[in-house]
Amino acid sequence: MILNKKYLTIYFSIFLIACSFSQEERVIEVDSSSIEELEEVLVTATRTVRQLSSLPLPVQIISKKDIKHSNTVRLNEILSEQTGLISVPDFGGGEGIQLQGLDAQYTLILVDGMPLVGRSAGTLDLNRLTVGNIKQIEVVKGASSSLYGSEALGGVINIITETPKEGFNGTISNRLGTFNTNDLSTSIHYKKEKLGFAAFANRYSSDGYDLIEGDNLNTVDPFENYTFNSKLTYTVSEFTNILVSGKYYNQNQDYIASETLKGESDIYEWNAHLKISHEINEKWGSYFEFYATRYKANEFLNNENGDRFSDGFYNQLLIRPELRGTYELSENNNFIGGVGLNHETLGRTSFIIKPEFNAPYVYVQYDGNPIEQINVILGARFDSHNKYKSQFSPKAAFRYELSNKLALKGSAGYGFKAPDFRQLYFDFTNTTVGYTVLGYNAVSTAIPLLQSQGQITNVIVPVSEFENTLKPESSISLNVGLDYEASSKVKFNLNAFRNNIDDLIDTRVIANKTNGQNVFSYYNVNAVYTQGIEFNTTWKPNAQLKITGGYQLLFAKDKAAEKAFGDGEVFARENPNSPSFQLKKEDYFGLYNRSRHMGNLKVFYNFPKWNLDTNIRATYRSEYGLFDTNGNNYLDTYDDFVDGYAVMDFAINKTLYKNYRVGLGVDNLFNFTDTQNISNISGRIMYGKLNIQF
Q1: Which of 110, 452, 593, 634 could disulfide-link 158, Cβ–Cβ 3.0 to 4.6 Å?
Q2: pTM of the predicted model as reported, rounded to 2 decimal places
Q3: Cβ-Cβ contacts under 8 Å for 638 (sequence gap 6 or more)
Q4: In a 3-state reduction of DSSP, which class is residue 229?
Q5: Cα separations (Å) of 312 from 96, 120, 260, 347, 554?
Q6: Span 222-230, mean pLDDT?
Q7: What's the start-to-end Cα distance of the chain, in Å?
Q8: CA torsion 206→210→215→217, rounded to 10°?
Q9: Phi and psi angles of residue 232, each rounded to the nearest 5 degrees, phi first
Q10: Under a CB-based contact definition with an 8 Å cutoff, are residues 356 and 345 in contact?
Q11: Percent helix, strand and coil across the chain, each rounded to 5?
């Protein structure tokens, strides 16, 4: 990417001026040498409280402090700034997170340990999650099905929300920016003796934006959404605690498909969570959790004269009771185990039935130190299911402290993702183009019906091949790394990973239609893998300055494609009129929408004397391919690629009179856009933010 020198000079001048800015305010004296940083703790990786620095797994914490200083407002924004994570848009307009080169559908998204639903196109849209009430975000990389079951094949992202704070206090926050993007939040906390209460509300709206001029369509249509959260805690006794929480979310968005087809889409989501914890004695603890959530989406399109052209609906319900216990064998050796049930239903447009999934599960895990320098985690989970084969998911991890500065760690685990409702029960025909998509379980009835209606000219895959069940996708995940703390100011960590995925679910043509279109369905194909290296470093020379950086090298490939290239079976043309030539193994680039290189660099500076903090954050993504452009059905070095790009964000915040905080910033400083390929980067966004505490 070429950066404009004039803008570069201006923005860095602003940054330097901000760093030297001062005014006559009440001075707060801070002795940096007296500040002792608390060790970050994480619960997602083991479902118990663990120090981040002692874990044998590749994990990452995004603190509330970093979220606050960056002025981000939605979850996808803060996640895409982390090493090895990239926000990827899907064709439905949502955004998911690609992790270690694995698609967003393989990462489980949790809020306070409970899963979100609503993956209408396989991806859970992270735009619908505000960061206004987040305490911290925990990212666990690598297969985590030994604790969390399906969808945790690639990893887990757990959003921990705020709990009630002592006394009575609250905040009001508003950020207004380009495209009339407005984020308004308020929270209230109350806690006294045994009772605690927290409430949070957020309104987020935008006029949308258009990257392609002249097409009379927006890249993102105007929308507004509302989020309401509440938590109630009650201490029954010294040994028993109760937590009740709930959330409601609603979004309304314009839905414009063409100049003549216009409508609306509405999303409704709620969840409720009950958690009772009881300490039986010094060694035994118990927990009961009951969780329920529903995600509903409705959309319609009308034609020019106002008549209804199409309707669509999506209605998913998940109910999960779980009972688990902990046992502390000794100070450094403990066990956790649990048993639960996932009950799930989905009603949706173009489904042959309203399916119901019932999946009981049980898991157990040991976390201990056989000797002082070694930490070992051994765990396994068994998932039964009424629609697919049962799954057994083991995991093992270790960490060995070579010294008080250097530690080696490694983990191996099995992950799986069950076939979703869409892949099993879809029965959809595009009324405009004429193609048909059938779920695996719908083929045996839908194909004979289409044949009887005279719509099929040729059956490519016999219906008999769909008599068995569609297998879950599975993965063996390997991670090996080291943590090195050169000093209290400098830290490094390195992680090498490989994910081997078998029984990948993909689409294929199973029949030809008389209208010239095809019938598609889902099937298990051969294996793919993602492998690479991640590197992170933090330098904190003093209490005011923190610099962090990260880099990922990624190779993501299909094993069958590698063999085809190696055997000389793949050819390409440099242009339609040139002769074809044979490709070599090294010409195979890999899976679509994967970049070989990704990196980030962040500089945070704090001026306690002036109650001011500022930061610059940059992310980089190297070139990647979205389509086969030379007709051989593979992504090779002779295809067209999306150019690599960098995005830089700037923020400055100042606290006034203790309770008022004013922020200014620019996201995407150099106004990068790609109108043809990247729909989730809108261009330069300038904003102002005000936060009031009371």
Answers
A1: 110
A2: 0.90
A3: 572, 574, 583, 587, 630
A4: strand
A5: 22, 11, 18, 11, 38
A6: 97
A7: 45
A8: -20
A9: -130, 125
A10: yes
A11: 10, 55, 35
CB 477 within 8 A of CB 397: no
User: Token digits for 671?
Assistant: 């106004």
682: which 2 tokens?
Answer: 């809108």
Q: Which amino acid is at 509?
A: V
Q: Cβ of 166: how many Cβ atoms within 10 Å? A: 10
In Å, what is the CA distance from 427 to each residue of 21, 257, 442?
A: 63, 22, 7
Quickly tell me which residue has 């060790």 as its tokens: 39
Any idea what DSSP says for residue 588? Answer: B
Cα–Cα distance measured from residue 461 to residue 458, given in angstroms and rounded to the nearest whole number: 9
What burial class does residue 42 get, using C-beta atoms within 10 Å of its C-beta: 0-12 exposed, 13-18 middle, 19+ buried? Answer: buried
Those residues whose C-beta lies under 8 Å from the C-beta of residue 486, and which sit 6 or more positions away, are 405, 492
pLDDT at 56 over 70: yes
* Residue position matching structure tokens 């409601």: 248
| pLDDT higher than 90, residue 2 | no
How far apart (Å, rounded) are the C-alpha atoms in residues 52 and 155?
16
What was the pLDDT predicted at 271?
97
Helix, strand, or coil (residue 482): strand
User: Nearest CA to 311 among 328, 302, 299, 320?
Assistant: 299
- The tokens of 113 are what? 């340990």
Q: Of 336, 334, 266, which is closest to residue 113 (Cα–Cα)?
A: 336
The token duo for 620 is 């980089």
Q: Give pLDDT tens digits for 478-505.
A: 999 999 999 989 999 999 999 999 998 8
Q: Which residues contact 605 (CB under 8 A, 6 or more apart)?
A: 19, 544, 545, 546, 613, 614, 615
